[in-house]
Specification:
Order of helices and strands: HHHEEHEHEHEEEHEHEHEHEH
Number of helices: 11
Radius of gyration: 21 Å
Structural class: alpha/beta
CATH class of the largest domain: Alpha Beta
Mean pLDDT: 87
Strand content: 15-25%
Strand order of the largest sheet: 8-7-9-10-11
Number of domains: 3
Shape: globular
Distance between the termini: 46 Å
Number of strands: 11
Low-confidence stretches: 1-22, 283-287
């Protein structure tokens, strides 16, 4: 790969050493010493590839938010309480907050013990550990849940989206068992003018297809493991969404609130950047 190709990818240069043996850190320091780049620009470049190693169980991508626009999320399942607490403590050395996905009460207790002065908020099936609030990006995200049982997963998605700076307007319990309940929320969403929608549903997973056929913005279908018996583990919901005939619906995996929130916020934030760049302000909402 040539240098001109690597220059298009901020992290790619970290994966290849120069023939003369200089790595990215050495090249950056040399550029600062020669006056080719400012210290501020050098700091930003290095943060895009910063990795922190914890013993032999974690390699934390601390530069992900700056590089990708998506914060690193701690997936607690399969990790010990001590490992999760240690990861949170390390991440909080370089940022104000961290999201913990799918924690158990034991995980939460260990985080409390390790970080006794740090606030912990329950957000659906996730924890938000830390202080402060994210800076608004200007992105706008609408959210709908088919039933109250879908809320824990949807709340996780919205926590991720808010951490990425998106503003959120949400409505709950508007599933197809009483589809007339959808009319008023859609009217309010038109006024809100979202850039993207997240629609969470379990059971047969019909609501995202219905909504996608009624709006002119992308819809992220979020299937949940809510239902009875055969297919009630989210299988029926995700298969129904994947077989949609309604254009503009994309689907994440069952209970993947983190993926839904990150994808929706990336879309919303990109749209907000376009409004800022081109000075278009608000455009007409979904119709």
């Amino acid at each position: 790969m040539g240098r001109n190709v690597l220059d298009s990818y901020p992290l790619a240069t970290l994966l290849y050493l120069e023939r003369e043996g200089m790595d990215e850190l050495e090249r950056t320091l040399a550029a600062v010493a020669s006056g080719a780049i400012s210290p501020e620009k050098a700091a930003g470049r290095l943060k895009k590839g910063e990795v922190r190693y914890l013993d032999e169980f974690a390699a934390l991508d601390l530069g992900r938010s700056a590089r990708k626009g998506v914060p690193e999320v701690v997936y607690a399942r399969g990790k010990s309480p001590a490992q999760v607490a240690s990861i949170c403590a390390t991440i909080l050395e370089s940022c104000e907050r961290v999201i913990v996905s799918s924690p158990t009460p034991e995980h939460e207790a260990e985080i409390h013990a390790t970080l006794p002065e740090t606030p912990i908020r329950q957000t659906g099936r996730s924890l938000l550990v830390g202080v402060g609030e994210p800076s608004p990006s200007g992105g706008r995200l609408g959210a709908l849940s088919a039933g109250t049982s879908d809320l824990p997963v949807l709340e996780e998605a919205l926590t991720v989206a808010r951490e990425m700076g998106a503003s959120v307007k949400r409505f709950h319990d508007v599933g197809v068992a009483g589809v007339h309940r959808l009319a008023a929320p859609l009217e309010e969403l038109r006024e809100f003018d979202p850039d993207v929608l997240i629609v969470a549903a379990g059971m047969e997973g019909a609501l995202p297809s219905v909504v996608s056929g009624l709006v002119s913005v992308p819809v992220i279908g979020l299937p949940t493991s809510t239902g009875y018996g055969l297919g009630g583990d989210g299988t029926a919901a995700i298969l129904g969404m994947l077989q949609t005939c309604s254009p503009g619906l994309s689907v994440v995996n069952v209970d993947n609130g983190v993926g839904a929130g990150a994808t929706a916020a990336l879309i919303a934030n990109r749209a907000a950047l376009g409004r800022t760049t081109h000075g278009n302000g608000r455009k007409s909402g979904p119709d």
